[in-house]
Specification:
Elements: H1 2-18, H2 25-39, H3 45-51, H4 63-72, H5 78-86, E1 100-102, E2 111-116, E3 120-128, E4 131-138, E5 147-149, E6 152-154, E7 159-165, E8 172-176, E9 182-187
Antiparallel strand pairs: 1-6, 2-3, 2-9, 3-4, 4-5, 5-7, 7-8
Helix pairs in contact: 1-5
């Protein structure tokens, strides 16, 4: 019974990370890609369908598969997930395994398109010394002309904007994508 509770808890946490319920064949395709991006491990659609009970399966999943699914939600292994879930603890630290981009690899004039839920998108232009200016903003509290400092962009993780000057107000720290993270695309200035 304990294993069933942990499986249900893991399914729920996976949907939280994905940002949606997993119920259709397209959802499983999306989940496969999300797991691969975050963990650099490949889990098949058929395995995920068995895990979610979408198809009939009377066996058990391999521990190595469960380990990857647990890494997707921020745990090191299935064992650590079960231990922490049983103790009702939250993971406070975990390695960032997703694609990332330090701002040190950028040149002045490069742009970054950043999107996060529910329907927010901004274009940031790099000004040098880890500073950015907002060039475009849709659905966000950030406005064109706002500036901030950022040292690192990480796919699927929250984005922390330090010394963010919004509409001339005193600097604050601003967090984009707190619950579901952000997706970024870099555009190199020619």
């Amino acid at each position: 019974m304990e294993i069933d509770n942990n499986i249900c808890a893991l399914r729920q946490k996976m949907e939280e990370v994905l940002g949606q319920k997993v119920a259709t064949p397209q959802d499983f395709d999306l989940l496969v890609n999300s797991i691969a991006k975050r963990t650099h491990q490949l889990i098949s659609v058929s395995t995920l369908k068995r895990f979610y009970g979408y198809v009939t399966f009377t066996g058990t999943l391999r521990t190595t598969t469960l380990d990857v699914l647990c890494q997707y939600v921020g745990y090191m292994s299935w064992e650590s997930f079960c231990t922490r879930e049983t103790a009702a603890e939250q993971v406070e630290s975990y390695p960032l395994l997703a694609d990332s981009m330090p701002t040190t690899c950028m040149s002045v004039g490069d742009k970054v398109i950043v999107a996060w839920k529910p329907d927010r998108e901004c274009v940031f232009a790099y000004m040098g010394d880890n500073r950015f200016v907002v060039e475009q903003s849709r659905g966000s509290k950030l406005c064109v002309g706002d500036t901030f400092v950022c040292h690192h962009f990480v796919q699927g993780e929250p984005l922390c904007l330090q010394d963010c000057v919004m509409q001339g107000r005193p600097p604050v720290t601003y967090l984009c994508g707190r619950d579901h993270g952000v997706i970024y695309t870099r555009i190199v200035n020619d």
